[in-house]
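Most newcomers find our protein records easier to grasp once they have seen one. A record pairs a protein's sequence with a compact description of its fold. An example says more than a description, so a record of this kind follows:
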Amino acid sequence: KLSTKSAIAKDKADSASSDAETLKREISVLATQAFFRLYYNQKALELNGKLQEIIKGTVASTKSRYETGEEDHHDLLLGNIELSTLEVERLNLLREQKTLQAVFNELRSK
């Protein structure tokens, strides 16, 4: 009877140890995923900024040509729409970055 209780206690201890090890691995995987998503997000923000600068230059050039009658108004509008789209994307990336940082910080504290 005592050996049966001992065996049950040992099995429970082994199970708890296995559960703890599984949890450590899951946290490690989640932290790695959060880190790389945060890295990707940062690079996407940098690229977005560079694209906005390029489009702003193009829009300024197109505006000058439009004012002199060399360019169609349609091209100027397309440039402004692209700038607006990039700004919305930048705001979405910033929101995602804050969420990812919070997840990453929570995982680091575990």
Q: What stands out?
A: The radius of gyration is 27 Å. The chain has a mean pLDDT of 88.
